[in-house]
Each structure stands twice: as structure tokens, then as C-alpha cells.
UniProtKB/TrEMBL annotation:
Pfam families: PG_binding_4, VanW. It comes from the Bacteria. It comes from Nonomuraea typhae. The chain crosses the membrane at residues 103-125. The keyword Oxidoreductase does not apply. Keywords: Membrane, Transmembrane, Transmembrane helix. Residues 62-93 have a biased composition (Pro residues). This is VanW family protein. Residues 190-279, 306-412 form the YoaR-like putative peptidoglycan binding domain. InterPro entries: Glycopeptide_resist_protein, Vancomycin_resist_VanW, YoaR-like_PG-bd. The keyword Transmembrane applies. Residues 1-99 are annotated as: Disordered.
Amino acid sequence: MRRAGPIDSPTDPFASVPLPLPGKKPKVEGLPPGVSRDIFGPNGQPEQPKQEPAAGGGGLPPVAPPPQPWPMQGPPQPPASFRPSEPPPPPPGYDHDPPRRRILPTLLLVMVVLGLLAYLVPAVVMSGSVLRGTRVAGIDIGGLTVTQAADKLRTELSARLDRPVTVSMGGREETIQPDEAGLELDVVATIGEAPSGFPTPAEVWRALTGTTDLQPKISIDAAQLARTVEGLAESVDKAPKEGRVVFSGVRPRAVLPQEGLLLDRDSAVKAISTAFLRSQANVALNLVPAKPKTTEETVRQAFAEARRAVAAPITLTKDGKTAQLTPAAIAAHLVYVPDDDGVLKPHFDAEKALEPIQDQLVDLAKLPQNATFAIENGKPALIPGRQGRGVDAGRLATDIPGVLVKRGSRTIAVSLAAVKPELTTAEAAGLGIKENVAEFTTNFDCCQARATNIQRMARQLDGTIVLPRKTFSFNGTLGEPTAELGYLEAPQVVGGRMVNVMGGGGSQFATTLYNAVFSGGYENAEHTPMDYYAPRYPEGRDVTVLYPRRDYTWVNNSQYGVLIKAVATPTSVTVTLWSTKRYDKIEAVVSERRDVTAFRRQTSGQPGCLPTTGQPGFTVDVTRVFYDGGKEVKRDKKVTTKYRPQAQLACLATSGG
């Protein structure tokens, strides 16, 4: 841009402006910027201020009006070339705050990142394993995988748990091994309590600065321990003896009641469980007194009555016929049984007492006869039964106690009643007993007390008929084994211990029956496997019985009757079931043995010690499979049997004084 020269401004600003011609509007050109033409007035001429005459027609000229600025359309603006340049706008995100205020967020961000790294780095390293610092009963399993930790616990902790507990009972001591208590380390549950996987911040801190102590999860098989306690009880129990009156021939003898001592079974189970769980080496078990129902006074009263009962015979009469119950017959069938109040009441077995004299009162042709079967030429032959008449045994049993205690006449007029046989010919013929459906044999050593017991059971059971849909009870059918019935004390395993019991050997007979029932396809109802495996029985197919607490029952789930025939020799017993076959074949599918456990070797100098042969423990499954028409038609749910290892026990000889 050129620089402008000096401008000579006239004294009169209007002198430099040409005047318009008369009659024409003045033309104004070249006004400075911002100057409006309105300054020239309505005719284009500048307005002249009005002169007002001075007062009095003379004096000073009028006061000039105050200067007026030229009218402007807006504030004067300097030329663009002279305007200062505006600063550029700040870039996006520009912080107007001073730098000092930006330091705090930055520091916080850095701290958060460092904190995350301090957690994530060790957490990633620890993930997939048991949290470091984790200990189970002092055994460090931290940093191991779950599998490695489980293996380490099984190796190191199981050895600690495999410690026996010595129990004392009334001056007698017994050693209970962990397997006898059903003690088992639950590794899965124990590992489940240990923190593993991706750790939380709290777990990372605990792993880096401390430890996590856990207790092992130990389970006890309550049923197994209860059986062990039952075996202990058999060796220490002294049951209370009820007062009674017995006969030696025809002479009554009073037996006074005696208190007993019984092992508190429930308390013993809890005490032994606690001892194993807390690693106690010794525990004392309680023996609690057991009082009889009867008293000396009630026994003396019954004794006085018994003397009168056998003082003379009782005469039975019917239609001019007579028969006598001799004092010996009365004594043989009369018992005194305590009632709920402990009072001894007379009970007379009229049916048994009438058997030898029934024909003296009733013609033989009129007596009832039960239908039965005999095995002839390998086939069941029906022996017909018949309905008859006989002495009303129920009424006689009610009448006799009244006669026994009275002084005076000892004659009873009996009455006859129609007596239906327990099994009629028609009923027996419709049972479908026609063929051998199952048979099983077990062996035993000759000439021992248990052999005598097994032979006695076979005679009792032989000929029993189980009707369709009925349940057979071993204890219910054979009853209590007593010396009066010909039973002897013999060794039998009870709760893992070999003890002498009345009727020992019953478990072998029950096992023989069980296997015949198994092969016949009948339904098992209740059975308890043996504690130890005996090679003379099939694996997973044995039974233990103990009157009256442990029974063996099965159901005839067929539409046919089942005839049981039992035969015992000096060295074996055979049970045969006769009925109608329902299946072509029934077989047992037996799994491989698992969880095999070696047996221990022990010695004992306890009185009454019975040596045993060691047997390993193991678990086995047995499944019964049914075939018909050459095809499998069904199979039972598998039955799992867990045998304990049976210690090999040697009895130390004791020398007499």
C-alpha cells in the first residue's frame, strides 16, 4: 500500500466543495468514510444555526451551540491492514488447568495399573492349582494340582489315620482297627475345601503373606462300626437273667433273677467314632446295668404254684373217654413267663401235650391230616391231607392254669372242634410243586459243634412250604437256638470278631439257603453279608444271621408254592427248592475284585482266643441275570459287597499254674 501525501485543509470546509447551480441539488461527492449526507440538511445544504436576537436588540452574540459529533453508523473500525490478528482457537482436549492440577489423576492411574499388575501376575501364576500356603493337617499341598494334592494326601495322611484305637470295657481291652470302624479318608471332600482355580485378591494376599489350614474330611461307615460294636458286645455282655421256675423231672426249682451288664451300644459307636476322628489312642466304653423284669418275690410266688401244678395228674374226659396228663407231662409243657409287670404267669402248650394222648379222646380216623410232599424217584409226590376233629387245644390251654392253682378236682371236660389242616390236599395240589428249581451245597469240617447245629437246623427246616407271595423268615421259622432244642455253643464271626454263640454255624446254613433262593429267582428281602470273605462261599453271596437281631428273609414272588428240602451229612448241607421253573437259566455276573486290602497278622493271649485264617479285604459287585427262551429277559440291580480284611490271629498258649 502507498503512503498518502499531505492534505491542505481549507479553513472553510465547504469552500472546497463546489456550489450547485440554482434550481439544482448540490452534488456531494467524496465524503469521508462514515460521513452521512444528512449533514447537509433537507436541501443538501448545511443547516445554519438560528440566531436569536439578544435581549434589548443588542449585546453579545448568541452562545454557540455545543459541538455535535458526526453521526456514525457504527463504531469506527480501523482498516483491516491495521487490525491486530486474533489468536487461534485451542486444540481439542486442551487443558486450560495449570500443569500442577494434571499430576494427581496421572498418579492415581499409575497406582491402579500397578495394583492390578500386583494382583494379576501372581493370580495367573497361581491359577489352576491349590492356593499356595494351603495345608491339610500340616501337610502342604499349596501349588499342586488337584490330582497331585489328592495323591499326596492319600500317601501321607492315610498313613497317619491308619492307627488303631484300644477300647476298654469292664476290665477287658480290645483293639479296633480303622477298617473295623469303617474309617475312610474322603480325599474328594477334603480337596473340595481347599481354594483352587483363579484366586481372588484376598486369596492372593493370604497366599503371599500367610497360610490356609484345613482339617481332613474323614467318614465313618456307621453300619460297619455298629457291626463291630455288636461283636464287642457279644464278648462282654452279661444279659440280665429273669427269675423263672424250671422243672427237674417233676420237681420245680426256683431260679432267682440277676442283674446284667450290657455294653451301651449307641454310646460306644459315638465314643469310637470320636476317638478315630480326634486321633485318640484309647477310649473307655460304658457298661450299663440291665435290670430284669422279675423280682425275688414274684419267683417265690410262681414256685409255690408250680409245686401245686405237678402235685397230681390232670384228667381229661370226653364222651366217656379219658386221658391223663401226668405230672411229668405237665412239667414238660408248663412254663412261667413274666408279663409286663414282671409277674410270672403259667403258660401251657396244650397242642404239644395233646399229641401223645389225642387218640385216647378222638378216633384216629377223625383227626386232621396236613397235606405234604415226599420226594420219590426224584419227583415230589403229594401226600393228601384231610380235615378232622380234635380236642380244642386253645380252650384247653385257657382252662389248665385255673386248675393248676386250685385245690380240689383236677378233671377237665374237653370239647372237640372241627380242625382244618394247615394245608389241604386241594391247596397243595394247586401249588405247582413239581420239579427241582434250585439246589446248593456247602461243606464244613466233621464232628464239630457247628456241624451239630447245622444238622439240627436242616431237620427243623426240612419239608417247609412257602406259599405264593409269602415272606420266609429264617429266625421266625427256626426260632431261638437253645440247649433244650439240641443246639450247642460254637464259634461264629459277629461284628468282625470270632466269638462263641449258641447255635454257631447258622450263618453257613443261611448262606446255603440264600444261594438256593438266588438260583431259583426269588426275591431277596433282607440279608446282611458276612464281614469277611470265606472261600467256601461264592463272592458276594453270603449271609450272616444272629438271633434275634439279624435275620435273613426272602419273598416267594411267584404264583407257585416252594417246598424246601434240607439234608445234612457229617460234612455238608444241601438245600433244594421244589416248585415250577419260571426261567431257563439264572446266572450271577461277578465283577473283578477292587480296593483289595492286605490282612494283618496278630497274636492274642486272651482267654477263649479263637485262631483265624487271614483273608484280604476287597469289594465286589454281583448282578443276577435271568434268561428265558435263550435270551436275557431281565437283570437285578447289582449288589455290592465290601469285605474287610480278616486278620490272621494266632493264639498264644497259656501255661497252667
